[in-house]
Request: fold
Amino acid sequence: MRHTVFLMTAIALAGCASPEQRCIDRAQQDLNTVSRLIAETEANLARGYRYVTEPAPTFGYGFCTGSYNIRFCSSNYTNTRRVPVAIEPDEELAKLEGLRTKQQELSARSAQNAAACQAIS
Reply:
């Protein structure tokens, strides 16, 4: 639900942005993703574990109505749940170092792309 509201808001606001701002946003999209992954990896290291989202099938029984009758029926649907999973600290540190290197590369590239966006406008 929260993600749907966020997505709808982002779509609505994207229509309001200038072409220059949309160009800059596209130029910084990869950098923002890597920055989010860095924050997530740092949080995992601080906690000592990470969360994995996995499906959780749910089965239910109840009464259904229709055509002037009531009958017993079942429903099946899938929820998701966050499950903590142990991490290997050395692997997480190596991943974090790789992400920081990538962040530096993307920072320089996105600055160039953003400058190009401003030059076009």
